[in-house]
From TrEMBL:
It comes from Mammaliicoccus vitulinus. One of its GO terms (molecular function) is D-ribulose-phosphate 3-epimerase activity. Keywords: Carbohydrate metabolism, Isomerase, Metal-binding. A divalent metal cation binds at H32, D34, H65, D174. PROSITE patterns: RIBUL_P_3_EPIMER_1, RIBUL_P_3_EPIMER_2. PANTHER family: RIBULOSE-5-PHOSPHATE-3-EPIMERASE. This is Ribulose-phosphate 3-epimerase. The active site is at D34, D174. Binds 1 divalent metal cation per subunit. Substrate binds at S7, H65, G141, F142, G143, G144, D174, G175, G176, G196, S197.
Length: 215
C-alpha cells in the first residue's frame, strides 16, 4: 500500500500543532519536513527549532528533506532534533556516500534525492546503501508547481533496478502530486507520495488520503 506524506511546507504554521493532529487523524503515514537554505534552492523555509517543537507534539514518522548546500554540516543536528528519515540531494555534496553513512550512524533511514534535470543513472553506485530515493517531480524550492511528466521514467528505471538487483529501497516522489499524478507514479513503482498544496487545500484531510491511496 502506498504511503502518504503531507508536506508541512503547505500547512498553516500558525496552528502547527492542530495541523499535525489533523494529519495523523486523516490516515497519512509520514510528515514531510522541507528544509531550504536559500542557497541550494531560491527559498528559505523551516529549520531546527520547528523540528524540535514538532517532535514534542507527535510520534508520527518525520521525513526530513534537506535542500541545503553541504548537508554534512547539518545532518547530525537534524538527526538529533527528531528526524526519523533524512534525505540529501545528490547535487548538493561531492561526498554522497559519506553523507548517507553519516545519517545511518544515527540509526535513521537515509535517502538520496535527485532534481528533475539529474540523470537517474547517476545514483547507480549509491542505491545499495540507501533506504529510500526521493525523485523530485518539480524543481525544488517552491510549492504549487506543476508535475514534470518526464520524471516518470526515473521511477520506472529505479523500480527495475531494485528488482534486478534484489534491493529494497523505497521510491518517494515529491512535487505536483494529486490524485491523478499520484496514480501515475504508483503505477510506475512509487511507494511514498509527498503532497503539499493538494493535501492541505482540502477542507477534509481524509479526502486527499483516500484519493491518493486509490480508495
Amino acid at each position: 500500500m502506498v504511503k502518504i506524506a503531507p508536506s508541512l511546507l503547505a500547512c498553516d504554521f500558525a496552528i502547527l500543532k492542530e495541523e499535525v493532529t489533523s494529519v495523523r487523524e486523516s490516515g497519512a503515514d509520514l510528515l514531510h519536513f522541507d528544509v531550504m537554505d536559500g542557497q541550494f534552492v531560491p527559498n528559505i523555509s523551516v529549520g531546527l527549532p520547528i523540528l524540535e517543537s514538532l517532535r514534542k507534539v507527535t510520534d508520527m514518522t518525520i521525513d526530513t528533506h534537506l535542500m541545503i548546500e553541504n548537508p554534512e554540516q547539518m545532518i547530525d543536528l537534524f538527526c538529533e532534533a527528531g528526524s526519523d528519515m533524512v534525505s540529501v540531494h545528490y547535487e548538493a555534496t561531492n561526498h554522497i556516500h559519506r553523507a548517507i553513512q553519516q545519517i545511518k550512524s544515527h540509526d535513521k533511514l537515509a535517502g538520496v534525492v535527485i532534481n528533475p534535470g539529474t540523470p537517474v543513472e547517476s545514483l547507480s553506485q549509491i542505491l545499495q546503501d540507501v533506504d529510500f530515493v526521493l525523485i523530485m517531480t518539480v524543481n525544488p524550492g517552491f510549492g504549487g508547481q506543476g508535475f514534470i511528466d518526464s520524471t516518470l521514467d526515473k521511477i520506472t528505471w529505479l523500480d527495475h533496478f531494485r528488482k534486478n538487483n534484489n534491493l529494497s529501497f523505497e521510491i518517494e516522489v515529491d512535487g505536483g502530486i494529486n490524485d491523478q499524478t499520484g496514480k501515475l507514479c504508483v503505477d510506475q513503482g512509487a511507494d511514498i507520495l509527498v503532497a503539499g498544496s493538494y493535501y492541505f487545500n482540502h477542507d477534509d484531510y481524509n479526502e486527499p488520503v483516500r484519493k491518493l491511496k486509490g480508495e
